[in-house]
Amino acid sequence: MSGSKDGKHQKILEAAIDVISEKGLDNTSISDIVKKAGVAQGTFYLYFSSKKALIPAIAENLLGITLERIKEKTQTKEKLWDVLEVVIDETFHITKTYKDVIVFCYSGLAIEHSMEKWEAIYQPYYEWLEELLEQAKRNNEIAADIHVKWTARIIINMVENASERFYIGMEQDDTLDGFKKEIFSFLKRALLKP
Amino acid sequence: MSGSKDGKHQKILEAAIDVISEKGLDNTSISDIVKKAGVAQGTFYLYFSSKKALIPAIAENLLGITLERIKEKTQTKEKLWDVLEVVIDETFHITKTYKDVIVFCYSGLAIEHSMEKWEAIYQPYYEWLEELLEQAKRNNEIAADIHVKWTARIIINMVENASERFYIGMEQDDTLDGFKKEIFSFLKRALLKP
Amino acid sequence: MSGSKDGKHQKILEAAIDVISEKGLDNTSISDIVKKAGVAQGTFYLYFSSKKALIPAIAENLLGITLERIKEKTQTKEKLWDVLEVVIDETFHITKTYKDVIVFCYSGLAIEHSMEKWEAIYQPYYEWLEELLEQAKRNNEIAADIHVKWTARIIINMVENASERFYIGMEQDDTLDGFKKEIFSFLKRALLKP
Amino acid sequence: MSGSKDGKHQKILEAAIDVISEKGLDNTSISDIVKKAGVAQGTFYLYFSSKKALIPAIAENLLGITLERIKEKTQTKEKLWDVLEVVIDETFHITKTYKDVIVFCYSGLAIEHSMEKWEAIYQPYYEWLEELLEQAKRNNEIAADIHVKWTARIIINMVENASERFYIGMEQDDTLDGFKKEIFSFLKRALLKP
DNA sequence: AATGAATGAGCTTTCATTCAT
DNA sequence: AATGAATGAAAGCTCATTCAT
């Protein structure tokens, strides 16, 4: 198909996400990945220069999915608050599904000092939210003295981090809705024009 | 007591922090650590059951230092806002100093599915802030409908996460004060009784 | 004919010599060679049955060039001593240009226990010198008790080996002439009718 | 015993020489060597930093043995010619025993561009022969215009090279004495005061 | 004849851990 | 308690070779 990335590349990527989700990065060998992907050991290196090269590829893939979903679900939303609710929902959803991979991506990128890549990957996400905040500012939805660039980052990171802590910290699932609501209120108060 | 902990235990811990700060966890071998600590290879295993056992020990150590410093500097502070400023300052400070170790602790704990330990380690920090929030609530400093337990976690994690992103993302150092102020304003608005 | 050999065959051979000169045999992959030669991976195997099959081919090629040049330059020489000077000059010249390849050919052939090939390759060179020595004997230029077959080999190998050591051992280039002269004198004394 | 090198180091070295003699360097894995030596895989790396580090160690070992034997057998010899006969005999002997290892050492060192090491290893051998040639010069045994330093190298290399070619080229063994005699005559004529 | 993606065996090397001293 | 030589499993990666196109 048109949009579909090269078959083997995508297969390996997905296998990697799967296996790492299960076993963690350190316990995942290339051998595990290729076995799952159904390709030969050497084939991995035709598509990724090394094991480390997986990390940004996975991160990009996951964030791409997330952002796509968020954009799709917010197309009809007019109010910033509705958008934020979607952001929270989707972030929690993707975090639940891929919690291990997300943590390993974050730490993997951080550890390898390739944080610029991380920033580059998040750029479109940040920009999308910055744009929304600008709009909300113009509409007098949010306080005028908010620094849009920083606030966009604060919000995105905060929601992401909170969801990671929630799922990775094995919080009881029945507290989920309360927690999400609290985050929403927190954000709303933090942004709202007094 | 102050210098209480057994000399070798502490030596190894500090050496580990040092070496991991420099080289990252994956590139740090027990051999590196013991060399730096000036003890024999086998000695490591007299104090830590395995390499993985280092991670919570280091995390506890670092958070202990942070919390101690924060408590010390906030003893005289009466207003929640002053306390929060100290929290932000100290978090950024400790993150700057130990950024690599912090990331690796976080991911290390997460990856090994030993997140309960993480929660246990943070417990005193959370409790301390919960207590402060309760007080502030009673004093009508902050909104009455705030869920203290969750909010404590949200704040601590948010500040920590923001500082990590700041330093690891290699943001220009001259934006530091602006960024910290923005975080403070963000938090203040989020908590303030409207 | 001159450029006779099939284009691709020759291209691969030359690429191989080039790359191996630069990187050494062990660090040279078929992939490197075909890239340099501008042909596909599989094409290599249309012309050479294996990587090892390169070695005698390269050796033959190089010795062929050397011998051709020597014969050309000695056509007009009548005295054995003049011929020997050319042999020394040309051997040093070719060794300088292809030192790494020469060593690897020698060792490569030796290691693979295909030394018969080596002998076969050198056969024309040996025979050519044997013939000259016979002549010189008949002309009373050299001692009568010299064993022509062995001496031919001794001379050729000695000059070759000396030049290898010279260039590979990174001797100062300004000692070159002195060294060549010493070899010449050595040989002359060794052969000269007393 | 006293002079005996550290047990494991020597064991590994000897095993390496053995296995490489049989299979050649490229076909010899560390695994083969340690199996033969009766030590663990990792133990190899306690004594040699890498596979390549074996080469100079082996070369030194072999040349050490050779030189020791030559010195021993020439203690009572007064005439240079007698010494040269021993040199020829011993060189052929050691070459016969270790032909494959010798070739791989030579090429290995050459290939790795560590020819300085080669020179360093040969230094004592060269010096020993230089001294003898000086003496012979003073005694009017050999021509006065001989350049001692170069000639020592020419002789040693020539004899070595000839013996390699002889054994590696699988010459008939019954020609051995004739060939050695021819080398001796060749050398004698090359050196003798006319 | 020519291609080059795919293969997978096999290598070197690392390093957490053990244990005799 | 302390040592550090020895272990050996396990991993990442390479690359000669094949084969469907």
From TrEMBL, chains A, B, C, D:
Signal peptide location in the record?
none
Q: Which PROSITE patterns match?
A: HTH_TETR_1 (PS01081), HTH_TETR_2 (PS50977)
Gene Ontology MF: a single term: DNA binding
Q: Does the keyword Transmembrane apply?
A: no
Q: Which residues bind DNA?
A: 29-48
Database matches in Gene3D superfamilies: Tetracycline Repressor, domain 2
Keywords assigned by UniProt, alphabetized? DNA-binding
Say if the entry is tagged with keyword Isomerase: no
Domain HTH tetR-type: start-end pairs:
6-66
The UniProt entry, under InterPro entries, shows: DNA-bd_HTH_TetR-type_CS, Homeodomain-like_sf, HTH-type_Tx_Regulator, HTH_TetR, Tet_transcr_reg_TetR-rel_C_sf, YvdT_C
Q: What is this protein called?
A: TetR/AcrR family transcriptional regulator
State the organism named in the record. Answer: Brevibacillus panacihumi
What are the top taxonomic ranks of the organism?
Bacteria, Bacillati, Bacillota, Bacilli, Bacillales
